[in-house]
Write a structure and sequence with these properties.
It is built from 15 helices and 2 strands. With 341 residues, it is mostly helical. A two-stranded parallel ribbon has the order 1-2. The radius of gyration is 20 Å and the shape is globular. The protein starts with 21 loop residues before the first strand and ends in a 16-residue tail after the last helix.
């Protein structure tokens, strides 16, 4: 695997790569991306076969609903035209996801916030209907967890939603990522609770599953909260950046072991790109260049908002990291098998 050296020398900067990067918001699967593009262009029917095919795989279903929801965020009114041709549970899941995506686009004005709150309530009703129509489906509950965060639901409600998810799909990546954020200090949780949860998820993940990457997400959430705290206390930006510049010691060693075990037995998963970005971000922060380079090569030309967007413009930060590491996005010959050693 990668040699363990968290202070690898940084290579010389490579050529600018930002223009080569594409958002992963429309998914990593080519068929899903193509369907999302058709939905964005107005062909809503293109999504129905993918929603139907996803019913037996919770990971694929959540990712499909998430991507298609973003694609239909500006076409919510048109989804009603599908009532006669679509499975109602599929349609309610998609509608709820689209309403959530639409609400998350709202700006910070008072009128916009009020409209977003109303849209989130509509999303909650659609997703509750989807959950009633297909009781074993974890996807509506996973999206409801995100709706609850956006709506400022109390902890009791968030805990209830988490129990519903766990009963249906105990290792669902998106649900665990959402739970990490629910437990984060920025949302009223605590550092101890968040890291205990993420660590337990990583330790109990199925072999070859990218779920251990949620521990890297916990580190990103913690650093983001600390960055906000120091900034609010009036600490100069340069000092804040230096204080939060990289991860250290045992924390990085733990992430290194989890990432190594994952890639050593990985099976294809809808969240692979997200997991590679989480580990790649952490190792880049830690100056573990070999591991960071491998993970950021593995993402191809796709960038993720999380966790990079916690600290600035995600696309620019991913591009800067790739340039520092000598990664060329979309290199057809990469990544190789993880290096031995």
């Amino acid at each position: 695997m990668w040699p363990w050296n968290p202070r690898d020398a940084r290579p010389a900067h490579g050529a600018p790569v930002e223009h080569l990067l594409t958002s992963a918001a429309l998914g990593a699967d080519p068929m899903l991306r193509a369907a999302a593009e058709e939905v964005s262009a107005g062909d809503l029917g293109a999504a129905l076969p993918l929603l139907a095919e996803s019913r037996e795989d919770p990971e694929t279903r959540v990712a499909t609903a998430e991507v298609l929801g973003r694609a239909a965020a500006d076409r919510v009114e048109d989804l009603g035209d599908l009532l006669d041709s679509a499975d109602r549970a599929d349609l309610m899941l998609w509608l709820g996801s689209a309403l959530l995506a639409h609400a998350l686009r709202a700006s910070g004005g008072a009128a916009e916030r009020k409209a977003a709150e109303a849209t989130l309530d509509d999303a909650r009703r659609a997703l509750s209907a989807a959950a009633d129509l297909r009781p074993d489906d974890a996807a509506p509950w996973t999206v409801l967890q995100t709706v609850a965060m956006g709506a400022g639901a109390d902890r009791e409600e968030k805990d209830r939603l988490w129990r519903e998810i766990r009963q249906r799909s105990p290792h669902l990546f998106a649900a665990h990522a959402g739970r990490v954020r629910v437990l984060s200090p920025a949302r009223g949780g605590s550092e101890e609770e968040m890291f205990a949860f993420a660590g337990a998820a990583a330790d109990t993940a199925p072999a070859g599953d990218p779920l251990p990457a949620v521990l890297a997400l916990a580190h990103a959430e913690f650093l983001r909260a600390e960055h906000k705290r120091l900034t609010a206390e009036g600490v100069f930006g340069f000092v804040v950046d230096q204080a939060m510049g990289r991860l250290h010691g045992e924390a990085v060693a733990e992430l290194f072991g989890l990432a190594r075990d994952w890639v050593g037995s990985a099976v294809p998963h809808p969240r692979d790109v997200q997991a590679h970005h989480l580990f790649g971000w952490a190792f880049h922060r830690a100056e573990a260049a070999d591991a960071a380079r491998w993970h950021l090569t593995a993402v191809g030309n796709l960038y993720c908002e999380v966790p990079w967007g916690f600290f600035g413009d995600a696309r620019s930060l991913v591009a800067r990291a790739m340039e520092e590491l000598g990664v060329r996005p979309g290199d057809p010959g990469a990544p190789p098998a993880p290096p031995g050693g």
